[in-house]
């Protein structure tokens, strides 16, 4: 028998636990000397480091489509807070310090949330997609990720996936944050906007960086272990000289071994290994 934490026994206890973590994070930030970026500029930096887009509404197995539709509203509100933010050298970008509390009073709607590998609904849900987009931009740059929380399990089958599996991030106000530091010698800027059925974003800088980056996924497959299926792969980041194209580094950034939480019948048979 698995012993439950006290906050799992009663919704009130859960709310108390969440508030405790929120207060703890606020105290930690108050004590920190970290400088958080907070300048929004409508003047766009000239150089595009990386651009990307992701589909806003996907038909996820077993998920109420209305939660996905509500996500459009939540993402639009978050775009208003993030678009144009400039991160000076030495500053840190904080997802939640930039967006603030995604409350109902601010117009946020119930969207898809994931907690302890369980899918549910919560006000402000769906903002993980914004975190995923920003993280992907940062992975394709020399910026330093300082806080990242991976989804540990494979919760849904692929639906028009454009990036390697596992390269997203969890966010939950305010203590499950996503942060990166500008360790370069120049300003960088994040642009985010919605266009048709997609969330779009760009990471920009004052001038080109000397290197290009590329992420690749290798040895992707599914394997059954003790009557459970796991999604397995390795994700590498390749660093190349911008001028010569010479590969300078191949860094393992993610070693996926994620339990499949959806219907096993949806696993492509040709991707299963013994």
Verbal overview:
This protein has four helices and 14 strands. It is α+β, with helices and mostly antiparallel strands and 274 residues long. It has a domain at 10-23 and 35-208. A five-stranded antiparallel sheet has the order 1-3-9-10-2. The radius of gyration is 19 Å and the shape is globular.
Strand content: 35-45%
Strand-and-helix sequence, N→C? HEEHEEHEEHEEEEEEEE
Sheet/helix structural class = alpha+beta
Q: Roughly how much helix do the residues carry, as a percent range?
A: 10-25%
Compute the separation of the termini in Å: 30 Å
**Shape type:** globular
Low-confidence stretches: 1-7
Calculate Rg over CA atoms.
19 Å
Largest sheet: 5 strands, antiparallel
Average pLDDT across residues?
92
Number of helices: 4
Tell me how many strands there are: 14
What is the topology, as strand order, of the major beta sheet?
1-3-9-10-2
